[in-house]
Amino acid sequence: MDVAIRGDRASCLSLQLGPHAWLFAVARGFGTVDGVAAAPAALGRLRAECERRMRGDRFRRAIGRTGTAATAMLGVLARVNTELFARAASHDDYVTAGSSITAALVLRSHAFVLHAGGTAAYLAHRGEVRALTGDDTFDDAQIPLLGRALGTSAALDVAVTSLDVAPGDVMMLLGHRVRGEVDRRALIAHVEEAGPSEHMLVVRFDDDDTAPEVPVPIRSHAPERAPVARVAIAVAAMLALIVFTTAWTF
């Protein structure tokens, strides 16, 4: 696998959970948790909880099997949600912080996509692009109202999509969904038009069953933004991954 990350690195996660298991995620949130922006706080707790559980044989066995991996990851997300909800100064009528999340748990040629909120995932397969996530926002405002998100309620409601992946497939995890009908051109336009603060993670699958490499890591948020040239390189790398898979059909 090859992985490219653009935008706020703290809002993207790439973590190996086993010999043939990897977790990729993007998050986008509002408010702060213990002085940390909600999205990085959520992914930081997600990483810490995974690493804590990986010290036990039971979780390591569960996360490496397609029959039990999704349930194991839902347990992790439930724990993270409980922590965020408790730390976000929750009240009966409102919460002060919350985070959308889209995560992909990849086990060799199979993947589970877990989703809550306004982030999104798409898969390019043999020239076709399909959305792997729905939209949990109530409107199209700049700061949408979230129907589901980490830390906004005591119980977490997560949508899970199960799919097979093949060599040459490209999966994109985005901080914002692509508006309108989604196809190859719409996905590329979304990447080209995204501002420097938009974060995204792209995974290209191949025949090599090894740990993924991250060729284009870029930071774009405080304390400083990435230079325009570096952002352009990241965009070009992502487009190359998509075009490599889909261009032959046009």
**CATH architecture tag:** 4-Layer Sandwich
How many domains would you count in the coordinates?
Answer: 1
| Strand proportion | 25-35%
CATH class division? Alpha Beta
Number of helices: 5
pLDDT under 50 segments (min length 5)?
138-145, 213-235, 243-250
The N- to C-terminal Cα distance equals 25 Å
Report the biggest beta sheet as strand number plus sense, adding barrel if it closes.
6 strands, mixed
As for the CATH topology, it is: Phosphatase 2c, domain 1
Task: Output the structural class.
Answer: alpha+beta
Report the C-alpha radius of gyration, rounded.
17 Å
What is the CATH homology-level superfamily? PPM-type phosphatase domain
List SSEs in N-to-C order.
Answer: EEEEEHHHEEEEEEHEEH
The number of strands is: 13
Mean pLDDT: 80
Helix content: 25-40%
Strand order of the largest sheet: 9-8-11-12-1-13
What characteristic shape results from the CA principal axes? Answer: globular
